[in-house]
Design brief:
Layout (H helix, E strand, L loop, with lengths): L17 H12 L2 H4 L5 H4 L9 E4 L2 E3 L9 H11 L7 H5 L28 H12 L4
Length: 138
């Protein structure tokens, strides 16, 4: 009879900043995109961080395939826009040094379509309406 040796449990996640959360979500989906130094559509689809490139089946990457499903980052942004109570741990963000970068571009008069501003009749508009119904405050 063999004895089973229990493996120690990994430490609980302590980083619930937006970066830590998105990292855990990407780890859950797989790190194949990170290995290719490509943004994961699972996280970034529907944002300006993703254009194309997708695993079309296990182990088969197509650089021209486009994922049309909304990614986790866009969905989280849409949820935060609908419910101000959804927030991330700012302590873990504040502990990191800020990096100076270029100034953001001025806002457009009419923002382009995105996960938080979907085109009427699109799947994004449908997802936004479902999220709005789920998070409607009374």
């Amino acid at each position: 009879m063999r004895s089973c040796i229990a493996r120690p449990m990994p430490p609980a996640n302590r980083d619930w900043s937006i970066g830590g959360t998105l990292t855990k979500l990407e780890e859950y989906n797989g790190l194949g995109y990170a290995a290719r130094r490509q943004p994961s559509p699972y996280i970034w689809s529907g944002t300006d961080q993703y254009r194309s490139g997708k695993y079309i089946r296990d182990g088969v990457y197509d650089p021209n395939a486009v994922d049309n499903q909304p990614g986790c980052a866009g969905l989280l942004l849409a949820m935060m826009a609908l419910d101000p109570g959804i927030q991330f741990d700012k302590k873990s963000i504040a502990a990191r040094p800020a990096t100076a970068g270029p100034a953001p571009p001025p806002p457009l008069e009419s923002p382009p379509p995105s996960i938080t501003n979907p085109v009427k009749g699109s799947i994004g508009a449908f997802v936004a309406s479902v999220l709005a119904a789920l998070f409607k405050r009374k």
